[in-house]
Amino acid sequence: MGDNRIIVFLDSSVLISCGRRKSTRFQALAREARQRDVVFRIPPQVYTELTGNTTIEGYESSDIAVDRALQEGWMKVTESPSYVVSEVSKIMDQARRFIATASNRSEDVVEKADTEIVGLALEMLIDEAADQITVVTNDIPLGEAAESLVPQYGFDDDQITWLTGGELANELGEDFISEFE
Amino acid sequence: MATREADWNTPLDTGGEAFEILANARKAWIYTYIRYHPDAEIDDIVNSLEIPQRTAYDYINDLEAAGFIEQSNEGRPAEYAAREIDIELIQGDVERQITPELIEAIARRERDDDIDTYIERHGLDGLAVALEYTRDYVDGSVTHQIMAREQDVSPLEAGIILDALRHVVEE
Fold this sequence. Notes:
The structure holds 2 protein chains of 2 kinds. By secondary structure, chain A is mainly alpha-helical. In chain A, about 45% of the residues lie in helices and about 10% in strands. In chain A, the strands form 2 sheets. Chain A has a 3-stranded parallel beta sheet. In chain A, strands 2-3 form a two-stranded parallel sheet. In chain A, helix 1 crosses helix 2 (about 20-35). The longest helix of chain A is centred in the middle third of the chain and has 17 residues, at about 85-100. The termini of chain A are far apart. By secondary structure, chain B is mainly alpha-helical. Helix content of chain B is about 60%, strand content about 10%. In chain B, the strands form 2 sheets. In chain B, strands 1-3-2 form a 3-stranded antiparallel beta sheet. Chain B is elongated. The interface of A and B includes residues 60, 61, 111, 114 and 140 of A.
């Protein structure tokens, strides 16, 4: 395992949960990056979702913390997935169908861009940029799509791992209203 | 199902005396606190909420009169237990349930500014809808983007409220 090159992707659902508790949860993320000796990757779609014209007055927003993480160097925004690589485009369509089925909805309600993280995971393995990929998301159907679809392209099950934010770092799953535990 | 902007004329917002617990987050807090801490005494409740003891007594009396809690001992200091409630409201083709989970979601606005903001923007009905999505989210049958599209809110706002309500349905 020591020599394995691991790439860790973070999804917007996880970063949003960190944005709600900037001080502690983002620190926990930064610590995980250090301990794992990785730079977390986020797809461009995720960055746009968090920092676009979506900030809403009244909510603790996550954009400042994301930009700080980029400046500090423990997180970076990747390129978009290469749609011209047929496997990448194909797995994103599959992921779209997978999520629609898991949520018992029509495919229209899932956009291909929602599945960038799955396309990128496969692309990194195909390009041999990594031996193992970890996808961190609290969107269960997305995580399950990554875990079940990537091995269909000739990779081992242990080359793709899905974690929730709380599984990556305990603090990300904790309730901060201790009276109701 | 769609709740884009706050509509304060829904049954959850306009309901009578019994629904005071929905409009008063501190009452919702007391009910929820007692639910998590059976046989809680007034002092425990006062300490958890940081309100004057007299106010706490008033709220507890109201909750008892409305049937949400009951005294669980005969002596003093009084101890209280929460009653499980499940009230169904139907107005036209909209059905809503008042459950302990909904009351806990409201109680949390005392501490969680994001829930408070969500209620300000979408009303209690919007909160009830978000709670339904949160159940599906925790079960793994919806993503935050799907909720955003179906409810016409930004993915950021959907993600925020799902994260805020997650612990209400996880227990």
